[in-house]
Amino acid sequence: MLSVETHEAQPWPDALDWEVRAGEAVAAALALTPYAALADAAPLVEVSVRLTDDEEVHALNRDFRGKDKPTNVLSFPQVQADLLIAMSNSDDGEILLGDIVLARETCAREAEEKGISIPDHATHLIVHGTLHLVGYDHMDDASAAAMEALEVKALASLGIANPYADQD
Q1: pLDDT in the model for residue 6
Q2: Which terminus of the chain is more exposed, N or C, with fewer CB under 10 A?
Q3: Which of the 8 DSSP states describes residue 5?
Q4: CA–CA separation, 59 vs 149, rounded Å?
Q5: Which residues contact 80 (CB under 8 A, 6 or more apart)?
Q6: Are 3 and 97 in contact (CB under 8 A)?
Q7: Edge-to-edge strand ranges of the sheet holding 44-52
Q8: What is the per-residue DSSP string for 79-142?
Q9: Using alpha carbons only, how large is the chain's radius of gyration in Å?
Q10: Nearest-CA neighbor of 78 among 137, 151, 8, 132?
Q11: What is the SS3 assignment for 15?
Q12: Which helix (H) or strand (E) segment is 56 a member of?
């Protein structure tokens, strides 16, 4: 069973149930991967989404990635991708898939630049972060294109427009 825990370090803009939105985003992303069975697995499969500010994300990005600047989203996988399939067949307690952390100011600035709502942009970032938790990356053109295609499909399933449409 999939459980998405959301923690707002500070109130985020928009009167939105972020717990529900994060749960929908994680489920939509996971459903498009080979690890979709984790959503219905016997163990509790947990993803933590932290909605915080640029200052905290800056510190995390510096301390864990060696990049001394804020970024929009960070993902911290807790399970190696090659172990994920076997875990969906387990009935052992709980699996912490990982943590996703979003920076409010960066997210708001990017949403404004793109002319989209903060909730839609944050949803995209949660989908993106979820894909990182299950082993996807964008280190080369082919993997970036594959990851973007999954993001577009997941967002479409939630009624959110293609965030890459203006890049074509």
Answers
A1: 85
A2: C
A3: E
A4: 30
A5: none
A6: no
A7: 2-8, 44-52, 94-103, 73-77
A8: S-GGGHHHHTT--SSEEEEEEEEEEHHHHHHHHHHHT--HHHHHHHHHHHHHHHHTT---SSHH
A9: 15
A10: 132
A11: coil
A12: helix 54-65
Extract the residue ranges of the chain whose pLDDT is less than 70: 13-14, 86-92, 167-168
Among residues 2, 103, 86, the alpha carbon closest in space to that of 51 is found at 103
What pLDDT is stored for residue 167 in this prediction? 62
Please report, for residues 3, 12, 15, 25, 90, the alpha-carbon distance to residue 19 in angstroms, rounded to integers and kept in the order given: 10, 12, 12, 10, 26
Q: What is residue 37's predicted lDDT score, i.e. its pLDDT?
A: 83
Compute the distance between CA of residue 119 and CA of residue 35 in angstroms, rounded to an integer.
25
81 close to 36: Cβ distance less than 8 angstroms: no
Q: Which of 100, 48, 114 shows the shortest CA–CA distance to 72?
A: 100
Residue 95, token pair as written in the block: 């699996």
